[in-house]
Amino acid sequence: MPRGRLMALDYGRRRIGVAVTDPTRTIAAPHGVVERSNRRAPGTAVPDALTELVAKLEPAGILVGIPFSMDGTAGEMAQEARAFAQALEDATGVRTIEWDERLSTARAEREILRMDLPRGRRRQKGRTDEMAASLMLSAYLRSAPGGGGVPPGT
């Protein structure tokens, strides 16, 4: 994968949480949400706001969270997220990477509570989604060979 920032998406039917790294892939940070205007649109419908964000941030790769079941099987939402990842890659030309996001929402909710934010800011629409994307991206960076998501020798 080429050098440069990475993006992570917490796919959902209502909104998509977004997180990005800095260009050196050292830090992952929440970057907001992309609202889906039509929840009944097929999973392969990529919101224009997301393709515009990808064009603006120019990520080298996009991590897409796949919500596998606890037993590791790919249920309906996992299949929908996979179809979305492929549609996003086709629409943007940026390589997508599937990432197991089991329990990421629960971890995000715990992390938000630990931040000791006022109730109104904790419940802000999309806060959990963008935090889940950020936690996924951080986990990916820690797991990548050579650290920072950059393979050795590239």
Number of helices: 5
SS class: alpha/beta
Mean pLDDT over the residues: 80
User: How far is the N terminus from the C terminus?
Assistant: 9 Å
Secondary structure tally: strands = 5
Series of secondary-structure elements, N-terminal to C-terminal = EEEHEHEHHH
The outline comes out as: globular
Main β sheet profile: 5 strands, mixed
> What is the CA-atom radius of gyration, in angstroms?
15 Å
Condensed summary:
The protein is of the alpha/beta class and 154 residues long. 38% of the residues lie in helices and 20% in strands. The chain has helices at residues 48-57, 76-92, 104-114, 119-122, 127-143, and strands at 6-10, 15-21, 28-35, 61-66, 96-100.
Walk me through this protein's architecture.
The chain is α/β, with parallel strands linked by helices and 154 residues long. Helix content is 38%, strand content 20%. It contains five helices and five strands. It has a five-stranded mixed beta sheet with strand order 3-2-1-4-5, sandwiched between helices. Strand 1 and strand 2 form a beta hairpin. Helix 3 (104-114) packs across helix 5 (127-143).
Descriptive labels:
alpha/beta; 38% helix; globular; 5 strands; 154 residues
List the helices and strands and how they pair.
Elements (H helix, E strand, L loop, with lengths): L5 E5 L4 E7 L6 E8 L12 H10 L3 E6 L9 H17 L3 E5 L3 H11 L4 H4 L4 H17 L11
Parallel strand pairs: 1-4, 4-5
Antiparallel strand pairs: 1-2, 2-3
